[in-house]
Every structure is written in C-alpha cells, then in structure tokens.
Write a structure and sequence with these properties.
This protein is of the alpha+beta class. 38% of the residues lie in helices and 16% in strands. It has a domain of 170 residues: Peroxisomal Thiolase, Chain A, domain 1 (3-Layer(aba) Sandwich), CATH 3.40.47.10. Its main location: endoplasmic reticulum.
Amino acid sequence: MEIRRSLFALIKLLLFFSVQTESKKTLARPGVKNIVLVEGVRTPFLLSGTTYADLMPHDLARAALQGLLNRTGIPKDSVDYLIYGTVIQEVKTSNVAREAALGAGFSDKIPAHTVTMACISSNQAMTSAVGMIAAGQCDAIVAGGVEFMSDVPIRHSRKMRKTMLSLNKAKSVGQRLGLLASIRLAHLAPELPAVAEFSTAETMGHSADRLAAAFGVTRQEQDEFALRSHTLAKKAQDQGLLEDVISFKVPGRDIVSKDNGIRPSSMEQMSKLKPAFVKPHGTVTAANSSFLTDGASAVLIMSEEKALSMGFKPKAYLRDFVYVSQDPKDQLLLGPTYATPKVLERAGLSLSDIDVFEFHEAFAGQIMANLKAMDSDWFAQTYMGRKAKVGTPPLDKFNLWGGSLSLGHPFGATGCRLVTTVAHRLKKEGGQYGMVAACAAGGQGHAMVIEAYPQ
C-alpha cells in the first residue's frame, strides 16, 4: 500500500511538471515544501439578526468544521492542528477554535488556537498553518474563521464594572451597602461596541468616506460597483458556482443553504439612500457598504506529499504571501495597494501574470480608491517609495462571482472565502495564478498568490 501511494505521488509530480512546461512557469522552488489547499467550505453568510440569531459563534464554526469533514472524508485523527480567526470574541468561548473543534468531534489531543487580525483574521489563520507545515511541525492543518454579529458583547460602564468587582470582594454588609449607595444612574449606561479605530476613534465608514473623497471616487462610481457585486453574486449563486457553501440545519429552524444578503437593486433605487456616515454630503451609504454578517469558514491545508499519499486531489498551491501596515487614519483601507506589488515581487510575477483577482470589498469606495491608488505613479512615488505604479487589475478578472458587498463579510471568516474562491475560479476559468488581497482595521493588509493545481 505504501509503495502504491509513493508511485501515485510520483506520477502526480511528473504530471505537474509536464503540464507547467506547456503554460506559465510554476512557482515551485527547489528545497521548498509545496503546500496545498485541499478543500474549503463555509456556512451560508447571513445578515446578522436573521436565521442564526439564536446561535453562538462556536455553533457556526462547528458547522463549518463538520462540513469540511463531510466533504473531504479525512479521518479526524489525521489533522495535526486547528487555527481559527475571529474579531469580536465571545467571552465564554475565547478560544473558539478549541471549542468548535471539540464540538465537531475532533480528538481532544489535537491542539487549537485562535488568532485575531481584524478583517484578515482567517488569512492569518491560513498563513500560520502554512508556516507550521513549512517548518515541518505539521502535515495537515484545518484553518478557518468565524464572526457572529447577531450577539456581540455589551459591557457595563467602567465605573459600574469597578463597583461590581469591589462588591464581589466586600467582606461586610456595611461595605456592600456603601458600594451600592455609590451607584449613580450614569453608571448604568452600557458600553456598546463599534466598528471604530481605537487609535483614531473614527468609524471605518467615516474613513471609507474620507478615502473616497481623497481619491475623487464619486457616489455614482460606488453605487455602480456595488450593483456589479450584487449582480455577479446573484449570477454565480444561480449557476451553482458558489460550491464552497454547505447546507446547515439551524437548530429549531430551517435548513439554510445559501447566502441571504445578495440583493441586486437598481441605480435609481440606490441613489435614493442618504449618506450613512458623513452627513449630508458623504458618498458611502448602506447600499455600497458591506453589511453586518454572521458566518464561518474552514479550509484543509496540507503538505502536497501528505495530501497525495492520502489520495486527495488538491485544489491549489498556496504560494507567496505578505502582510503590510500603514497609517490607520488616512490610509486605513489601502492594504491591497501596498500588499499587491510586494507579493508580486516575492513571487517574481507581474500584474499581467495574474488570471484571477479576489479583493475584499469592505466598501465600494474602498475598492475604487485602491484601484485608483494602484494606477497612480504619484501615489507610488510619494507614499510607497516606488518608482512607478503597480497598475490596476482588469475588471474582467476581478471579483467575478461577487464579493463582500453582496456575499457578506463575517470579519473573521472572509479570508478563507477569498482563497477558496480563487481556487475554484482558477479551475473554472483555466487560469494558473490567482491573487487575494484585503484591507483590515488598524491600517493593515494582506495579499497572497495562489497557483492552480494541475488538472
């Protein structure tokens, strides 16, 4: 049996090199382990406050993990490690990776940890997995992400928290009564979470509006791009292209089998919406922004050798990746602009070599601003220390199955969706190289090059 597996692996490798010589060069490097995406799944992404409203984050993560197990058939004891990304953590399950893994039936002997890096949290989960496999620590890792915006933690005010902690330590009735008497009505005001930068106290919507204004992105351009996203997503959904979506029986409710935020509209209807953040003259609205979303994703990442020895047909190679960061005030959402040329240089590719682009759509204005920045020699020379612009991804290769504006954006889960979509599009469209890029809170960003696995 072991000899057969080895021969199978050798045949696959020979096929790989014979196919690559007929097309573009491969990004495989001598002495560097090939790491592959075997499979990727996600729960349907739903508007927060809808069908998932009564669940908890680990419920969604568990569903994604079970969906991955069902689709791959991999024995649970063949996974060496689990990593999950999330942003707004549920206090009761702070290491949601571990709780979801146990709930999905993985052995309690398999370690798991949770990472957070804003909207690129599951990107970080995946690249952490790549690093561990490259280092020889593991052969098979499940990475993923989850976000649950239907039930975010709401805290008491700091003064109230201090009083309650003191009450817990009080040793006499007199001390307790004294502390209770110190409570004022203002102490009862809750602290509500906000999608805002801690360093600037500015909401991401305000930042997107200012960024759009700085690059001269009009309201019409933003609405047109948002309409494009919803239209393409609806087409992909109707044609069955979103094959990473698994059906999920929500306890006490119906089976959910598709995203529910895809809503193609019209320019006329969208133009009627008022600015959501900068009033009255802003250009960012509810229609050209991503919406609060519940959802989870999961991917199986393995060394190519291990995947082939177990009889898997990988979907893609995970190649070069970079992380970037810049000014969180004026360049909060420009991660793709900074990350794209760096990852292309690492891979030895040019923008024209990329067949499939999947960029995270936080706001239509953010996408359009990045495209304009990438096409500006002035911006490259003034802010990036580069001699020339990297160029703009052609729209006929860009987010052709919709994006976060239409499919939804569970903060911690989107990265895995992007990577899996690239793999599926490369196979469907016959391309060889794909690129993922995303911005994130804190002025950070990520980009990765993915290479198609030989058919």
